[in-house]
């Protein structure tokens, strides 16, 4: 049984539609796949309907990748099988999405002041869906000839944190995010905590704090994790009673269509599902 619990569609910053993600998941031999777009669940229906119509699956898991911030550093939290209409969580998702648009507009303005010929309409067209992100701005910069490749935009010269055109945005405190997901009947997993080249390096003390708040698991098997970091995360997960997950973090063409490159073992997936909390706190 092959299980990929981390991938994105063009509803956020991937390049494939939710339907195409499901079709490619089947072609990749996946039995279970979670769609975890950034701060939105807008792709769930299309993905679920496509997966159900495909002969032989795959099983669709509704998910999300929530934008959080810890001590000024970006931290991402994967959430699964939660009720997106839970009022408090729904309000936070709307606030995050709205702020993404505000932030992107301000970044476009800064780029234009720096002489880069990009427009908001270009960025919005590249985004397509409701979740606008820096990769869409980077794509517009490539089209304008300001940089050669998308990765070249993520530097201090441009849109990396602290860069000339970078703008901070609203993000959740991760402890609160864990509690919101749990309160909506879901389960939370810390995404790529040791993706060093992208600046995600969180020590055991952060994972311990999140575990105390109700974190369900840690994503140890990720394409950007070195073997030593994977081993350390497994040890931490064992000490804290957390599930170890794996996912490709596929973004379609942006990441080389790598669905299934990293997977979650079936026993861990079953444990994760069994640890879901009732959505109504009164029924706990």
Automatic annotation (TrEMBL):
Record-linked CDD domains: PHP_HisPPase_AMP
InterPro entries assigned to the protein according to its UniProt record, in alphabetical order: PHP_dom, PHP_domain, Pol/His_phosphatase_N, Pol/histidinol_Pase-like
Domain Polymerase/histidinol phosphatase N-terminal: 3-70
Domain of life of the source: Bacteria
PANTHER family attached to this UniProt entry: EXONUCLEASE, POLYMERASE_HISTIDINOL PHOSPHATASE N-TERMINAL DOMAIN-CONTAINING PROTEIN
Protein name: PHP domain-containing protein
């Amino acid at each position: 049984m092959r299980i990929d619990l981390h991938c994105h569609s063009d509803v956020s910053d991937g390049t494939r539609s939710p339907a195409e993600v499901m079709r490619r998941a089947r072609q990749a031999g996946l039995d279970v796949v979670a769609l975890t777009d950034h701060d939105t669940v807008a792709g769930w229906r299309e993905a679920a309907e496509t997966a159900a119509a495909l002969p032989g699956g795959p099983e669709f898991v509704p998910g999300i990748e929530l934008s959080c911030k810890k001590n000024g550093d970006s931290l991402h939290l994967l959430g699964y099988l939660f009720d997106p209409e839970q009022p408090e969580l729904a309000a936070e998702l709307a606030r995050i999405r709205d702020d993404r648009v505000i932030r992107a507009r301000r970044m476009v303005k800064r780029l234009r002041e720096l002489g880069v010929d990009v427009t908001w309409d270009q960025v919005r067209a590249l985004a397509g869906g409701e979740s606008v992100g820096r990769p869409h701005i980077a794509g517009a910069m490539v089209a304008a000839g300001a940089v050669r490749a998308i990765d070249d935009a993520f530097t201090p010269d441009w849109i990396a944190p602290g860069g000339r055109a970078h703008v901070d945005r609203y993000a959740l405190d991760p402890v609160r995010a864990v509690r919101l997901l749990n309160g909506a009947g879901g389960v939370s997993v810390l995404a790529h905590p040791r993706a060093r080249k992208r600046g995600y390096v969180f020590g055991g003390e952060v994972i311990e704090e999140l575990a105390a708040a109700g974190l369900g698991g840690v994503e140890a098997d990720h394409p950007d994790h070195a073997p030593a970091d994977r081993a350390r995360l497994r040890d931490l997960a064992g000490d804290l009673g957390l599930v170890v997950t794996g996912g490709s973090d596929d973004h379609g063409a942006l990441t080389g269509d790598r669905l299934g490159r990293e997977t979650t073992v079936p026993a861990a997936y079953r444990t994760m599902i069994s640890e879901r909390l009732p959505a109504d706190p009164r029924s706990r």
